[in-house]
Amino acid sequence: RILVVDFGSQYTQLVLKRIRELGVYSVSYAWNCNVSKFYELNPHGIILSGGPCSVTQKDNPCIPSVIFKLNIPILGICYGMQIMVAQLGGTVRYSDNQGEFGYARVKIVTENILVNGIYDSTNRDGYRILDVWMSHRDVVTVIPDEFNIVGLTQYNKIAIMAHKKYHWYGVQFHPEVTHTKKGNNILNRFVTDICKCESFWKPSNIIKDIIKTVRAVVGRDRVVLAFSGGIDSCVTALLLKYAIGNNFVCVFVNNGLLCYDEIEKLSSFKKKYQYLNIVCLSEEKRFLSALVGVVDPEEKRKVVGRVFIEIFETYINSDKVKNIKWLVQGTVCSDVIESGISAVYNNSTPNVIKSHHNVGGLPDYLNIKLLEPIKTLFKDEVRKIGLRLGLPQDVVYKHPFPGPGMAVRILGEVKEEYCNILRQADQIFIEELRNRNLYTKINQAFAVFLPISSVGVQGDNRKYKWVIALRAVETIDFMTAKWVNLPYDFLDKVSNRIVNEIQDVSRVVYDISSKPPATIEWE
Ligand code: XMP
Question: Where is the GMPS ATP-PPase domain (predicted)?
């Protein structure tokens, strides 16, 4: 086990993911949590995450001193290294202009187990060089006594340090991001060679673990699962089945904001998985009328979230079900990060990117408890578990679809007429991606409705109709994403089909922005 002490970085969960990909269980606790949790976990090593604060500020988050007494290896990353330096007697300076952001080259100046044999190239003087990714403003100017400088950047800034006696290390760069090419090797060296962790974190063990936990938490209570038909809720449903038998019902809400043939797909899934007790509630009108006049994206998310909760409230209080004690949701890790929840846990200012409506607790009046059994898993881990549980490939590799559905793919106010247009455009795009065998090579693709009129010609007539944007991205973790270089002839075909088959569209555009600075969804 590796404990990641979280100082509020948006990459904390990525560190966990990297460690788990090495087959080692890893969990993050906030820096200010009760230290008894550290003892309970009894980790083989500790990673101190990055974070948005500065060690030069007052009341900055700090390392619980007990950590230095546990006699286990420690690796500080970015802020984690700086706070280690500050607490062990070195110096960190705030600098307006000395920070490093993006690519950097680190020269290895001292042999050390953390990086021995790990490098990208050698320079003219024979020094080994690591290509890394940095994101820091403060700089370590003096390392604490008993430490060595192991690596320096091209601007002579301290990039790697190691204690002379203990297994205490610090790296200024981010080994967890893919842009640090040998980042995984460095993490592997720390986890496997230095902390001596073995690789037990595999789908079969994860499944056993979740089943055991759900069984212990839920006991004989009755449960309702918010079921969307996506991979996250399908996996959650199957895990529930194994954990508590038939003591649950899956509720699918048709909010009128779904993709083209979602309801038909659900019907055939329902037939195949009858034992999951899937119930479908048709509530299209309710959502669409609640969205009238709402244009702000966050507001739209809130409205969809609120109506969704109201529908669940009515359902659990109805005669159809009795004694429901838990609402279960298939929330995964990235939903939690993007909603700023981990920052909230840390008492630092939450930097909410988008509030995902399936995250963030339930209103007290609901008198029901919330359970999110796969909250600590990443999408790719959920997919592996889905395969292991025997889910069909088209469910496992289905692109993610946001909870608020087309409400965040229609810019501005949502209208039924816009939903119908968007649904058709999206269906054409996805169908063509499948025809060309591109669907599974892309991580997410969809159409967006732009409520602006644009001039076109049809026969001899001028048409003044709407614009559709197409979006396709490649991403590993949905935290960063690159737009996909789709072939021109493919885009040509999709565009032609959309303007010819949908009367009310006159123009199609392709989105070539990556995340960051854009996000995957347009709203
Ligand atoms: P962004 O647009 O934030 O998307 O780059 C990252 C991933 O999250 C999905 N997404 C959402 N999922 N509720 C959801 O359940 C939401 O409000 C929401 N907003 C974005 C998005 O589709 C992508 O996979």
Answer: 201-398
